[in-house]
Amino acid sequence: MAKIRIDKYLADAGFGSRKDVKGLLKAKQVTINGETCVHAEEKLEPAQDVVCVQGKMVVYESFSYYMLHKPQGVVSATKDAHEKTVVNLITEQKRRDLFPVGRLDKDTEGLLLLTNDGKLSNDLLAPGKHVDKVYYAKVQGKVDESDVKAFADGVDIGDDTPTKSADLRILKSGEESEIELTITEGRFHQVKRMFHAVGKEVIYLKRLSMESLVLDNTLTKGEYRSLTEEEIKKLC
Ligand code: URA
User: Fold this and answer.
1) CA gap 44, 6 in Å, rounded
2) How far is the CA of 200 from the centre of ligand 1 (A)?
3) Per-residue pLDDT tens over the stretch 4-16
4) Which of 7, 106, 198, 218 is the most exposed place for a label (fewest CB within 10 A)?
5) Nearest one of 28, 35, 58 to 46, comparing CA atoms
6) Are 86 and 112 in contact (CB under 8 A)?
7) pLDDT tens for residues 163-182?
């Protein structure tokens, strides 16, 4: 790994802006291999050198991957002037360049991947890649076999082209139905618009999986964890 400046290293690792980091250096709060460092331009080798801030060792990863159980009421963005964002939910020392891979609506819950790996994000979101996303939903209205067929054939949701074939599994059919739906696209409000197109309304929506990544059911709403090596390997 190439050498990088201490101010960039600490800013990337989540210690604030380069200006904030300069403050830490000036206040003699930073050591590199045990030696106090006060110069923002000093360089280090991330894979070898040990950096401490206020006596605590800095965890530095080039790429971070988190699985978040997104709760309702939080927006899928990095920053927002008024609303809490999914990035705000990652409370440990984190890379400053984390972002959510795709979006879930504010009222949608479930699996959201957060990373700073732009290539992985592009691969998962590219329209040509047809990545499977599985959702669980409660739907107002009786979902039946005609909907299964309609979704398999593709429905008109008001875009230029109908939706691609989607796999609808009915878990409960009644006044209020419960379903699992697998889609391979990521159009705006896609699941809600697909049900709207067949005269029904989604009243609760949760994402269960995306490609090989499955929501860890030990995570309660708002909780997160790093992906395991195996999960990363399967995705990348
Ligand atoms: N489809 C929707 O309608 N909303 C989401 O949040 C995700 C998929």
Assistant:
1) 7
2) 15
3) 999 999 999 999 9
4) 218
5) 58
6) yes
7) 999 999 999 999 999 999 99
